[in-house]
Amino acid sequence: MFEGKLIKLLIAILFAIVSFSMISAHSEAANVSSAVVVFSPNSHTKEVGKMIANSKEAPLFEIVPKQPYSADDLNYRLENCRATLESTDPKSRPEIANDLRIVQKYDVIYLGSPVWFRKPPKIILTFLDKYNLQGKKIYVFVTSGGSPVYNYLEELRSLYPSLNFVEGRRFRPDEIQSNVDNWLDSLK
After folding, report:
1. Which of 105, 84, 183 is nearest to 143 (CA)?
2. What is the CATH number of the domain that holds 48?
3. Among 56, 126, 157, 180, which residue is least crowded by beta carbons within 10 Å?
4. CB atoms within 10 A of CB 64
5. Cα gap 148→32, rounded to integer Å
6. What is the per-residue pLDDT for 170?
């Protein structure tokens, strides 16, 4: 009889510990704030950003270039298209039109853009130069028909070694919500 009561007591204690751990973990997760930041000159990246923002219940902020990109600016077939000229100039830092200081208050940043020549568009570097993201977890997502994310991510890690670029993922321009959700679930 004593052993039965002891077992019940141990089970109750174990249940209490597990319950407390779950509540504590949930509270910590609830205290982590996330934001989605995108540069999306042709709307593909913004669509994926919206999916992430929806899943994470996070605000979506767009990096708006001071000088908007035209179709010709993004046409790699043109010899002197703006995207090519910026990508090949290591000092290029296109200006951002909007104030994005608010993103500095978030703990986790989902940073998205297209891939240009296997690297981040230079306006992403402008964003990282301008705003203090020290101590933030930064998850990179890119849109591309075929360019991998690892060159892009390595470029960021090389240029900004003090920032915490946790992981990156490439999405096709026609991505679906379930693929985005699967990636987000894998980050937990």
Report:
1. 183
2. 3.40.50.360
3. 157
4. 15
5. 29
6. 94
Specify whether 99 is located in the same domain as 153: yes
> Tens digits of per-residue pLDDT, 143-182?
988 888 999 999 999 999 999 999 999 998 788 889 999 9
Domain range enclosing 92: 33-186
**Rounded to an integer, what is the distance from CA 9 to the centroid of its chain?**
46
pLDDT in tens, 79-132: 899 999 999 999 999 999 999 999 999 999 999 999 999 999 999 999 999 999
pLDDT digits (tens, 9 = 90+) for 15-37: 555 444 444 334 344 567 999 99
DSSP of 34-61? EEEEE--TTSHHHHHHHHHHHHHT--EE
Question: Based on the domain organization, do 16 and 88 belong to the same domain?
Answer: no
Query: Looking at the structure, do residues 68 and 107 belong to the same domain, yes or no?
Result: yes
- Write the CB contacts of 73 (distance below 8 Å, at least 6 apart in sequence): 41, 81, 82, 83
Give yes or no: residues 118 and 180 share one domain.
Answer: yes
Total domains, the chain: 2
With vertex at residue 133, the alpha carbon angle to CA 132 and CA 138, rounded to the nearest 5 degrees, is 160
Contacts of 143 (CB under 8 A, 6+ apart): 40, 44, 45, 48, 112, 113, 114, 115, 170, 171, 172, 173, 175
Residues 85, 23: one domain?
no
Q: How far is CA 152 from CA 47, 132, 159, in A?
A: 20, 20, 11
